[in-house]
Design brief:
With about 70 residues, the protein is mainly beta. The chain has a five-stranded antiparallel beta sheet, with no helix packed on it. The radius of gyration is 12 Å and the shape is globular. The model has no long low-confidence stretch (mean pLDDT about 85).
Length: about 70
């Protein structure tokens, strides 16, 4: 299992989640969620969630990500 790291930018209300060491990635946007995949392998290496706390307070919801 790879180490997960979380970084929250309070000013921008963005949560960054990384799996393993940071690396170059291609992003796929799905609403306010961006899935980051390795340029080399296509493996999911991270997730970025925009308006993280705003959305959590307004409308709790389940986010499904297929890896």
């Amino acid at each position: 299992m790879k180490k997960m790291t979380f970084d929250y930018d309070e000013k921008a209300d963005v949560l960054y989640v990384s799996f393993g060491k940071p690396q170059k990635a291609i992003s796929e946007e799905k609403g306010n969620v961006a899935i980051r995949r390795s340029e080399k392998t296509g493996e999911v290496v991270g997730v970025t969630i925009l308006d993280f706390l705003k959305d959590a307070r307004l409308r709790p919801k389940k986010i499904e990500i297929t890896a």
